[in-house]
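Objective 1.3, modelling of assemblies. Example input:
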Amino acid sequence: MDIEVCNQCQKLFKVIGHEFPRSGTKEIEPINCPHCGHLQDTLATSGWWEAYPLTEEEVKEYEKNKRP
Ligand SMILES: [Zn+2]
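Predicted structure (tokens):
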């Protein structure tokens, strides 16, 4: 799981990759911001990407880890 900051609305979201088992081919799939729909990135995967907003707790955790 990756945490991203939207390039457009600056909100945090997490990206979860799903993979089809035994699928050898990779395709470029889009990652869209779940807050504003902005096309954040495209990455190769043998499955697909899902993006979710962070919960308040996850945001706190993220902010905590960001600080030295
Ligand atoms: Zn956004």
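The chain has a mean pLDDT of 93.
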